[in-house]
Write a sequence for this structure.
């Protein structure tokens, strides 16, 4: 396609026609000549931004879910997104259409409307890039979302939903599918590659909000260890974590061993850290919603961040580069 802004015909055919999910809060959304989305009067509107290379439809899924997760962890239900796409000159219109179809499919599942954005062809990128700005409204109808990584108090329990390293496992399984199939059965590799279906944390965030939880943090880049550090750093507290209690799928163990990466430092979108006064009670509440969860540690009144593995004790390090970049 040509450099610069895409033509109106391409915009209509491969972008606007792919947008079908609608929300009543979006009074005016994506359209030709529409550069601003207009929302119904509402207090407490929250927003989040994410960006990523999107050479495949699965990548579009992750960047949109990540933005929605950021809102959910702040107590907001995703409502609408502004989507900017930059494509290299050699891109074909069919590729743009596939990316927009993938984006719409994700937004339909998450009940978000693509309210606008921008699509352009640029010689400054060598693969498609997406920048997403998502907007959400409070889950409980409050004046504004008040759920942050700050506010954790000594004595509270740390609860983790689902399993660590889901995102990284899915990426690695897809990238290394051929080599993995030389060692593992097809069902294991396909299951690992399909972990992207678990990436949304909206259900557990909604359940946590109903349970009275006020401190949430969605795990993502850097893995669960980076997310635990960020939680403690933001609240200015210490913590103790039992490494053996961190839930991990066997598929993740196998894929990470094969790829020689550390699952505790691998992209972990799909699991949510919650801080609660009564962790086991929260775990039971989540179980009633069919959301697996476990108490993995406690908040302490020191600044020490400790990880226990049986009799071994070590200090939690500052976040390092995500293991996904090694592979």
């Amino acid at each position: 396609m040509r450099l610069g802004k895409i033509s109106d015909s391409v915009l209509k055919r491969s972008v606007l026609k792919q947008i079908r999910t609608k929300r009543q809060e979006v009074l005016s959304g994506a359209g030709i000549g529409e550069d601003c989305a207009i929302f119904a009067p509402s207090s407490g509107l929250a927003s989040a931004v994410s960006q990523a290379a999107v050479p495949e439809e699965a990548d579009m899924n992750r960047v949109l879910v990540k933005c929605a997760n950021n809102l959910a962890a702040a107590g907001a239900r995703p409502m609408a997104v502004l989507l900017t796409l930059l494509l290299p000159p050699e891109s074909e219109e069919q590729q743009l259409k596939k990316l927009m179809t993938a984006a719409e499919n994700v937004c339909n599942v998450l009940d978000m409307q693509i309210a606008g954005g921008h699509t352009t062809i640029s010689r400054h990128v060598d693969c498609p890039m997406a920048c997403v700005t998502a907007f959400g409204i409070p889950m409980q109808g409050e004046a504004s979302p008040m759920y942050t990584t700050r506010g954790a108090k000594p004595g509270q329990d740390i609860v983790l939903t689902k399993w660590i390293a889901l995102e990284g496992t899915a990426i690695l399984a897809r990238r290394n599918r051929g080599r993995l199939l030389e060692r593992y059965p097809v069902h294991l590799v396909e299951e690992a590659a399909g972990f992207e279906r678990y990436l949304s944390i909206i259900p557990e965030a909604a359940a946590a909000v109903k349970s009275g939880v006020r401190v949430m943090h969605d795990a993502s880049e850097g893995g669960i260890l980076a997310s635990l550090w960020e939680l403690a750093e933001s609240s200015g507290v210490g913590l103790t974590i039992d490494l053996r209690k961190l839930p991990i799928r066997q598929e993740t163990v196998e894929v990470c061993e094969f790829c020689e990466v550390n699952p505790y430092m691998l992209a972990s979108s799909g699991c949510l850290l919650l801080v609660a006064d009564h962790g086991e009670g929260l775990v039971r509440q989540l179980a009633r919603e069919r959301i697996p969860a476990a108490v993995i540690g406690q908040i302490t009144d020191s600044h020490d961040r400790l990880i226990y593995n049986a009799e071994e004790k070590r200090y939690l390090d500052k976040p390092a580069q995500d293991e996904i970049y090694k592979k």
